[in-house]
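Bench notes, afternoon.
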Amino acid sequence: MSLYPPLFFNRIVVQSISPDFKRVKVKVVKSIFNKNPQGSIFGGTLFSGTDPYPAVQFWNIFRSRGYDCVAWLKRSEIDYIKPAKSSVVYDFYIPEVMVNKAEAELRTIGRAEIVFEVSGIDKKGQLITKVKSTSVIKINSGSQLPS
């Protein structure tokens, strides 16, 4: 994913993905390509660094469990706490309780909406952003649920 042009040119790098897709670490690297006139990372770049990951994580989790589904980002909001003067890391962690809740909704109504929160932390450990997003997972029409 780090080579996908919109991420690559914004210097958004996937640092790690756990084998079960429950944890993804993403780094927004400060560079000349994403620096604003005040010397901090553009807000849009920080926001882009959070866009696809929870939906992609949920999609992969449920595909690995045998679900024929789609997932997308429905809504997202960001609070910029302070300017990002250095690179920022996002640690997307989906606990099993969140997966179980979504799976129960998929099994009963064929669709789940999951609210996910993540914080952006700079290299000094300072809070830079807080992001709250809603992902949708939907069973493809005509698909059978796994046993």
